[in-house]
């Protein structure tokens, strides 16, 4: 899962036996050399879709990590972009890698728990990439309510969600094995490390977004292809706070 510059097996093991926050603090310097970083193909496809919905004034990257989503916001927001994460290590890496350009929007990095966002309704766009596996299903209503609260009326919350692995496929069994291992680990070890790949299901996510007060639209990310049955491999969830 990692490039040669990425973490060793021992480093990943130490991370996995830590809390989520401390684990990412440890992983931060090598995070971008792991398979956990959102692929460029996904980032580019989402950027293209958001260009068709924008431009936007201010943007928020929810659970920004080292800033992959900040690169998307930088291309579609005119005024200001903000990354929020609870890992100081990940924020430090993101801040250090922020390109300096005279025409770039103002960029801020904020350490906070996204379940209690320290902002008012000041954003036109919120995005998130690859972070939802760190939240238990019972936490999604509160998380979505927080994002809803920091968007201006008419604001958009957008994120990609991949098609589920086909039952019986190799990918299906790999994800099942990973989630099972994490559940066993969390039953036997403290602090917990919440990271599950099979708990963020589109139908349930859509229902929770509606409950939080969003209007929800799904858009196929055509650049990422379609499966044999014609369904998209990845969709962009576009949740709008009504005016």
Automatic annotation (TrEMBL):
Gene Ontology MF: a single term: methyltransferase activity
InterPro entries noted in UniProt: Methyltransf_25, SAM-dependent_MTases_sf
Source superkingdom: Bacteria
Keyword annotations from UniProtKB, A to Z: Methyltransferase, Transferase
Biological process according to GO: methylation
Source organism phylogeny: Bacteria, Bacillati, Actinomycetota, Actinomycetes, Kitasatosporales
Chloroplast among keywords: no
Protein name: Class I SAM-dependent methyltransferase
Domain Methyltransferase, residue spans: 60-155
Transmembrane stretches, start-end: none
Organism: Streptomyces mordarskii
């Amino acid at each position: 899962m990692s490039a040669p510059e990425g973490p060793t097996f021992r480093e990943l093991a130490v991370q996995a036996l830590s809390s989520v926050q401390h684990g990412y603090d440890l992983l931060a310097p090598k995070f971008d050399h792991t398979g956990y970083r959102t692929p460029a193909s996904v980032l580019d496809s989402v950027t293209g879709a958001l260009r068709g919905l924008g431009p936007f004034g201010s943007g928020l990257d929810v659970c920004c990590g080292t800033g992959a989503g900040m690169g998307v916001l930088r291309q579609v927001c005119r005024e200001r972009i903000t990354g929020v994460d609870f890992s100081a290590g990940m924020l430090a890496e993101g801040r250090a890698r922020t390109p300096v350009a005279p025409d770039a929007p103002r960029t801020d990095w904020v350490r906070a728990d996204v379940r209690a966002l320290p902002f008012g309704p000041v954003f036109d766009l919120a995005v998130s990439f690859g972070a939802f596996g760190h939240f238990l299903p019972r936490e999604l209503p509160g998380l979505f309510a927080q994002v809803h609260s920091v968007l201006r009326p008419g604001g958009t919350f957008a994120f990609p969600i991949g098609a589920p692995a086909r039952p019986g496929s190799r990918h299906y069994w790999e994800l099942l094995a990973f989630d099972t291992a994490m559940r066993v680990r969390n039953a036997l070890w403290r602090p917990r490390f919440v990271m599950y790949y099979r708990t963020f299901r589109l139908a349930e996510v859509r229902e929770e977004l509606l409950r939080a007060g969003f209007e929800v639209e799904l858009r196929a990310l055509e650049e990422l292809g379609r499966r044999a049955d014609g369904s998209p491999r990845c969709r962009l969830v576009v949740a709008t706070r009504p005016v």
